[in-house]
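Example record

One chain of 116 residues, shown exactly as stored in the release files.
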Amino acid sequence: MTDKLKPCPFCGRFGHEANDQYATGGEYCECEACGIVLKGGAKVWNRRPIEDSLRAELSALKEQNAGCSRALTKLMTEHRKLVEGVEIMLKMNGCFPEHADQLRALLPEPPEVEHD
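Predicted structure tokens for this chain:
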């Protein structure tokens, strides 16, 4: 048997053995700490469907988060352009500074967001 064994899928400890023969024939792995025996060898012993599912979900969420981050960056850029455009229009129309402050209050700066 050449596959490296993961910790026991039940107790999480190391200290197990693998053997090519089981009482009924075939490979098995046995945890010396908790005594569990799994027929099927390293392939069965190392199977972690919940962990694999969680890793796939985490990867998808990271990808989704990256897309949201790109969209947020684009929105923040558009927001700044909008604020600058409003300020230019106010200056062109000779609005008083207090009007500019009132309009700027309607278009506050977006909060800072941490990006990965």
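Notes: DSSP finds three helices and three strands in the chain.
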